[in-house]
Recover the amino acids of this structure.
């Protein structure tokens, strides 16, 4: 982690985490990153599919996207990921909060091309749709031409984690209201067949793979 002045957590610094393994775990559990860029003096922030590949974050989008084109030129960016783990019910609105894991990455992106692009698409697909890539047809030249994958190096980052019970003012402890934490997590629902699905297909494996990748036990 470089340039600590830019990534130093200033608000509630005790929640800052410098362990690289925690950053990796957050990114490995994320499906969407919010990515910022300034274009003609106007800042924009857009959600993008993402996946970590070792020391880089891969971002997926369209070659027709203004954001992707701007980032591909080396424009400075900030990508953030937030995982919401719970709602903290305190005895006052001021102390009520959320439990979360969040990461911020600063840097510049590079567009992947040729075999790198295809490899990046495989990594993104396997992250978001586990064990799926080898069951699908290969992307066509037209599809590859319309698809952009950017890599953002994990060299300048910060992580902030909020967890634990409410931190109430002692004067509020006798208030006649419930206090505690309501855990939140990703729910994997029952698959819905495509209306034009042909033949008999069992989606059990799809669900199991998703649960193994993204479903963090609530309250863990």
């Amino acid at each position: 982690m470089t340039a600590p002045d830019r990534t130093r957590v200033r608000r509630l610094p005790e929640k800052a985490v410098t362990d690289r393994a925690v950053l990796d775990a957050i990114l490995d559990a994320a499906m969407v990153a919010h990515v910022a860029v300034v274009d003609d003096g106007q800042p924009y922030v857009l959600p993008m599919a993402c996946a970590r590949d070792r020391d880089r974050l891969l971002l997926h989008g369209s070659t027709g996207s203004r954001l992707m084109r701007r980032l591909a030129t080396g424009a400075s960016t900030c990508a953030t990921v937030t995982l919401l783990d719970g709602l903290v019910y305190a005895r006052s609105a001021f102390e009520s909060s959320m439990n979360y894991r969040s990461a911020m990455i600063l840097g510049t992106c590079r567009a992947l091309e040729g075999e790198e692009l295809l490899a990046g698409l495989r990594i993104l697909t396997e992250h978001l749709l586990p064990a799926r890539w080898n069951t699908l047809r290969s992307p066509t030249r037209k599809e590859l031409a319309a698809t952009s994958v950017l890599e953002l190096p994990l060299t300048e980052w910060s992580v902030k984690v909020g967890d634990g019970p409410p931190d109430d003012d002692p004067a509020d402890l006798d208030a006649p209201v419930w206090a505690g934490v309501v855990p939140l997590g990703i729910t994997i629902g029952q698959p819905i067949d495509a209306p034009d699905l042909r033949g008999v297909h069992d989606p059990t494996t799809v669900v199991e793979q998703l649960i193994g990748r993204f479903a963090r036990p609530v309250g863990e």
About this structure: The chain has one domain: 4-185. The first strand starts at residue 16 and ends at 17. The chain has a mean pLDDT of 92.
